Amino acid sequence: xxxxxxxxxxxxxxWVEPDGGHYEVVNPADESVVGLAPEASRAQVEEAAxxxxxxxxxxxRTAPQERAAILDRAADVMQREFxxxxxxxxxxxxxxxxxxxxxxxxxxxxxFRRYARGALEPVERGLPPQVTxxxxxxxxxVLGALEVRQPVGVxxxxxxxxxxxxxxxxxxxxxxAMGNTVVVKPAPQDPLSVFKMAEALxxxxxxxxxxxxxxxxxxxxxxxxxxxxxxxxxxFTGSTGVGRRIAEVCGRSMKRQLMxxxxxxxxxVLEDADLDAAVLGIGxxxxxxxxxxxxxxxxxxxxxxxxxxLVEKLTGYLxxxxxxxxxxxxxxxxxxxxxxxxDRVESYVELGRKxxxxxxxxxxxxxxxxxxxxxxxxxxLVDCTNDMRVVREEIFxxxxxxxxxxGDEEEAVRLANDSDFGLLSYVWxxxxxxxxxxxxxxxxxxxxVNTIGRNMExxxxxxxxxxxxxxxxxxxxxxxxxxxxxxxx
Length: 489
Known about the structure:
Strand 15, helix 13 and strand 16 form a beta-alpha-beta unit. The chain has 16 helices and 22 strands. 53% of the residues are buried. The protein has two domains: 276 residues, 3-Layer(aba) Sandwich (Aldehyde Dehydrogenase, Chain A, domain 1), CATH 3.40.605; 196 residues, Aldehyde Dehydrogenase, Chain A, domain 2, CATH 3.40.309.10. The strands form six sheets. Strands 14-15-16-13-12-18-19 form a seven-stranded mixed β-sheet, with helices on both faces. Strands 9-8-7-10-11-21 form a six-stranded mixed β-sheet, sandwiched between helices. Strands 5-6-22 form a three-stranded antiparallel β-sheet. By secondary structure, it is α/β, with parallel strands linked by helices.
């Protein structure tokens, strides 16, 4: 099942040939063919959902220790195959080597380890007893109560292309730990890594039907995975537009949802901020997945008194960012996922120019090697205003927009909250109390105070059109469970 071979689907514990044949997975760095991904039919997706439904009863009643052991063994396999699987992830996504190793396969391993422990977390919580008087409902009594978290059932996991390891691992591992079964539909651009995850689980001894992976470039594959009557919940990471359509389908049959959607992270830089620290944080937009990450601080809102200095420092920072082949030492910025996405990012840069923004750095397509690959220059758009589309819409590329403000923190908060999105935002200030005060007022699911770091036990999710629900840490276990009340006299 090597990365260069024609990949088969994983359905009901078996590797099966796809009804729709195969399509090429292209390396964004040089446009070579990484491998052949399977194109499932609607019938095969339905078969996968049925297999998951049939496996649910047995898996949900499996001892938590057994579920934990399987997740741990799968992590062992991932660790054993770390080097070739990191190389595959780099080839599929165009991520630089360090990111493919540490933030893709490495995070996949750590999430399986985390939810192996999570399978052993208590699912019952006793509630205070309640004394009831005699009445129409019966005799006087003392009623005990128990809150019990139960698995939801069959979960369709639709994963994003920017990280084919961390993202599916963050869905599959907690879902399995809670006793759910899964149908995984990977992003069409880079599905081969997700099949490696299935290989690890298969070798670890996961029972047939508990994990199923179906892929395809056709929209029909994802639609079938969402609207199947066997599916009880959909966990989706991707664009807000697609998320809305999935939510509409889920609403018709009351399927549970976990949605991690778009972001346009506000980076509020107050006049007393450490500008060097702010630049290091904001600069990750250019380097981390080439800006293809919904948590990036892409929308800088900076006080006029430090505006020129911040722009100068960001421009200087960009000058040292090597754009190039992700396999070469020293590369900081790799390609974006596809030619179509490169065109989309570049069209936003041109739109910004037409809207009146000034290109302080970038804006021209870089040429790497023989000219192949989907490279976008890290670009800094300055002199922006909050009504520009480049400020309001998610670009999902290595582009940062800078909006100056003249007033106090009230104006900064107003500008930051004037957005359809609310996933992660950031505040930089030399006054910690002030920074926390501003953070509490930002309409975002998470706020970084003088950091872009994330606590991986803290709840993750978005306000407004950035999503529904929370996961990460124990919150992911809660996301993949239903709460049942048991009351007794």
